[in-house]
Design a protein that fits this description.
By secondary structure, the chain is mostly helical. It has one domain (3-445). It is 68% helix and 1% strand. It has 20 helices and two strands. It has helices at residues 3-7, 14-42, 47-70, 90-98, 103-121, 125-128, 134-156, 167-186, 190-193, 195-209, 239-267, 273-292, 302-311, 316-329, 333-340, 344-366, 377-393, 406-409, 412-427, 432-445; strands at residues 83-85, 298-300. It has a two-stranded antiparallel ribbon with strand order 1-2. Helix 17 packs antiparallel against helix 19. The protein is globular, with a radius of gyration of 21 Å. It starts with a helix and ends with a helix.
Length: 449
Amino acid sequence: MSSSANAVDEVLPFPRMFALGLQHVLVMYANAVAVPLIIGAALHLPKEQIAMLINADLFACGIATLIQTIGFGPFGIRLPIIMGVTAVSISPMLAMAAMPGVGLNGIYGAVLTGGVFGLLVAPLIKYVLRFFPAVVTGSIITMIGVSLMRVGISWAGGGAAADFGAARYLGVAGLVLLCILVVLKFGRGFVANLAVLLGIAVGYIVTIALGWTDFSGVHAQPFVRVVLPFQFGLPTFSLVPCLTMCLVMTIVFIEATGMFLAMGAMTGRPIGAKEITRGLRADSIGTLIGGLFNTFPYVSYSQNIGLVSVTGVYSRWVCVTSGVIMLFLGLVPKVAYIVASVPQCVIGGASLIMFGMVTATGIKILSTVDYAAQRHNVLVVGTSIGFGIIPIVSPNFFRIMPTVLHPIFGDPIMMTSITAVLLNACLNRTSTAAASLDAMRAAESAEAI
């Protein structure tokens, strides 16, 4: 075993371990709180409830990270990995929120279903991967990014404000975008990893100075509040949202596999089917915990894997410390309330980059596709993305379809996914071994998003 592999189990002195653990939390914090902010605003929740979502998210992040890094029996890959909500789930959950009779509790029902599905599929992932080679995965993730851009553009323009598109909203969103780009251009290492968080902070400070933010409710929040299961009521279960979340979990598994392989190569620990299955089980348990504690699906964060590479510290106990810090932050509602007060245009400016990077990840995966050896791959990409664009540019295109099927034909991701999987299965006749190998290449080239 290499020295880096031995370093995975090394317990560092507490001051250094705490500092490194806090650094990991700072790197993932912006992405972690962005999902509750986006979903909460889409459902028009009051700031108090959005703050509860943020607390629950950080609390569940902490639990999921501890399970993944410490490892409990058949759960957890036992590597320095930070868990967080995946951006892949944002667009499907926004679509669920818009479905009649679904709402937040229906989303949690779908998350719980996705967690159970993940636990059942994790040992069989090698059989499922063959249906999701790079041409399919890349097409789906590209469409996820394209469909999310609608949300980002809406936020940047002011969201539901009566003066949508006003110069003040565009100016603040542009400032946030510019700050992020400047930090990414000139920042190095840890500073570059904080680009999104720093951009949001600058935009937030500007809006506070302009008097756009109301903190009058902060004093009413307790200093400590225990995160309880089902704070928004019991979950409800609807067929289409549950099926959609199962698809999301499949995509999460593909990108998580890539993260596990990358971390194994970095630390010198061999990663085989057994280790991957343990890691995917932890993802599934984390998603189940998310549904119980009013939050969302989880995956390994690539930003933190990059930070491990930058620092050269491979100890998983650093990430255990991060998990404990996140648990603590999840119990402090005053901080969550302040975060929940970020104006929509500030989040919109950051979303243009965050969601654009989702699209870029899909394109990156598609760049690995062999279009010469499999000449039908270009048809799979073009047709599946074309079908996914239909609900975006013409929402009433499939209005003649039965009402029960509207959630499928009205969802860009579902349309792209179904079309890509079916066309690939029909047009690209490859062996099981070749298809699985291609899927693993897609996983290795994907970044957690």
